[in-house]
Amino acid sequence: MVFRRLACLLLVLGLVGCSSRPVDPNRPKTVPVSGTVTYKGAPVEGATVTFFAQGGGKRGAVGRTDASGQFTMTTFDPKDGAIPGSYRVAIEKSVLEGAPPEGATGKAGEEPPAGTVKDLIPSKYKDPNKSGLTADVKDGGVKDLKFDLTD
Prior knowledge:
Elements: H1 2-18, E1 33-39, E2 42-43, E3 48-53, E4 61-64, E5 70-72, E6 85-92, E7 94-97, E8 116-119, E9 133-137, E10 142-149
Parallel strand pairs: 1-10
Antiparallel strand pairs: 1-2, 1-5, 3-4, 3-6, 6-9, 7-8
């Protein structure tokens, strides 16, 4: 599920970034949104931060943390921010352990085991309904969101 969601996200971002279509003048306005993710006081690199609009009707946003735990949100175009409003937040970082090398086959040509997903931060944070994390995006944007994760 983790990798499927990430793959879909990357595909959407790639298609949006490669599009030569003009911007829809009716598209909702976005404002800059950025922040930092830490776990036990240390920056979290490579985590996916996802905003889910509260009350529905609005498009969410997504970002990825860098080596210092900093992220910038994307809604339509890379790093364009988020639509002003209230959001539930999910943060996810995991790795695939025990996966076979690409192109490997199992016994008698069968598909080899796929490996297992290991969460590198507590799994409660990847569910926006259980994470306890929220973000309020005002018309002027937000540049200092801080998500300090604990066990």
